[in-house]
Design brief:
The protein is an alpha+beta fold. It has two domains: about 120 residues, Aminopeptidase (3-Layer(aba) Sandwich); about 90 residues, 3-Layer(aba) Sandwich (Aminopeptidase), CATH 3.40.630. Helix content is about 25%, strand content about 25%. The longest helix is centred in the C-terminal third of the chain and has 18 residues. The protein is elongated, with a radius of gyration of 22 Å.
Length: about 280
């Protein structure tokens, strides 16, 4: 099979061959600098590959995580487009760690947000070419660039992807919300209006600070991450805060992300939280 030849073009990379006229453009974008067009294209890609409900693959979540919870890693988003500038389509969106210029050995690796494994968003039929195309683009920046994306499982648009990081974290059981703190009945409230999300998140953080073994508020970067993610998702009405009160006092709370029926519990806190565990919440 004839080896394909790659040509770097301004702002991206192109690949062409005798039997393949696909033109690629690779954009490398820092967290916080994705354009509205790129974010819309990213979400359209998630829909095409059957991951429209995967909130942890959403650019709002990944950008916030890369800005506030990167753990010292230098992160860049590689966006792989095909087609002309006026009618281009996003085929892949991959978060990468940028190697140190001296001892990083030029190895770009997939970056994962804390406590999660997020599969790169790649349209299946372009998977075989993706590593070569991205490596060629990265070599234009560093001569010794190497890339190992690892296996990228094919997505089935007809099925809902499994969110392994949320195993066992369904909705909060009623017994955990009601049978805590006394015999009087509790009142459950769900705040979904964007204007109310901010105050509800702060109530959640206060409860978490009082009862969690490792309070979110003790780590400013994590607290800011939680606030930013909830605010960004609330703008699109994809966030909600569940507060459970007894006698006016919050005894349980949960942060939810995503649209029903695929919304997931992201973080939760309650009175009597098991202090022997580091945290009773997900990513």
């Amino acid at each position: 099979m004839e080896r394909r030849h790659f040509t770097v073009i301004p702002g991206g990379a192109g690949v062409g061959g005798v039997a393949d006229t696909t033109t690629w453009r690779i954009d490398l974008v820092r967290p916080g600098h994705l354009s509205p067009e790129a974010m819309a294209a990213w979400r359209a890609l998630l829909t095409r590959i059957g991951r429209s409900d995967a909130v942890f693959s959403d650019p709002d979540y990944l950008q916030a995580a890369a800005q506030h919870r990167a753990g010292g890693c230098d992160v860049v988003f590689a966006l792989a487009w095909t087609g002309a500038d006026t009618a281009r389509t996003l085929r892949a969106a991959v978060a990468l760690t940028v190697p140190h210029p001296i001892w990083g050995r030029g190895r770009f690796l997939p970056w994962q947000p804390p406590n999660l494994t997020v599969t790169p968003a790649v349209e299946a039929r372009f998977t075989p070419d993706l590593t070569d195309v991205l490596t060629d683009r990265l070599k234009a920046l560093r001569w010794n660039a190497a890339l190992d994306l690892g296996p990228i499982p094919l997505q089935n648009p007809a099925s809902r992807p499994a969110l392994g990081a949320l195993s066992g974290l369904g909705r909060i059981p009623d017994r955990a919300l009601i049978d805590v703190g006394g015999p009087s009945p509790s009142v459950r409230q769900r705040i979904a209006e964007p204007n109310g999300i901010r105050d509800a998140v702060e109530e959640f953080l206060v409860l978490d600070a009082a009862h969690a073994a490792a309070p979110i508020i003790a780590d400013p970067s994590e607290a800011n991450f939680v606030r930013v993610v909830m605010r960004l998702f609330a703008r699109r009405r994809l966030a909600a805060v569940d507060l459970n009160r007894r006698d006016g006092r919050v005894i349980a709370a949960a942060l939810r992300l995503g649209a029903a029926p695929h919304a997931v519990v992201w973080r939760r806190a309650r009175v009597g939280l098991d202090t022997t565990r580091r945290r009773d919440r997900s990513a």
